[in-house]
Amino acid sequence: MTGCRFLFISSNGDKIIKISQPKNHKYKSVPQLANQNVLEVILFYKNKDRKPHQLLTIEFDRFRLDSNGNYEETEVDRKRAFHNFFAFGMPSLLEGVEVDDKPLPIPVAPIVPTDSEKRSLYSYINEKLPNLAAAAPYVVESKIKASREKYEEFKTMAKKSKNRLK
Question: What total of structural domains would you count in the chain?
């Protein structure tokens, strides 16, 4: 069976707060982080004997909490999150560019944690999820590397589509 854990990490990495999974794109209030930019971390893992056992992957997002520590995902946020998929994820994409005579949009850069946020995350995992600790640095760095490589690929595709139309 699989599970996931949602975390907010403060921008300077000094606070990590476990939060419940959002319902209807609305997060529970986190007053300790009010008016701050936070890194949302979602850990996906396999369970063994009802406890986290193997870290599968990790996702990152960054946003600002309001004065009460609330955040509600908007339609704009959802569009930003899926922008690269919709703009670059279709197999016949370049064929469509040639037909429409318009270049591909600029891809959205990946969201990656800072060094202090990574140190805080590793510390949290070591303390609260020791079974995931050994694989955590590898999974995090692999995710960051894959995200950056995919972004570079999308940038190259956008440049080629622009050059094709000249």
Answer: 1
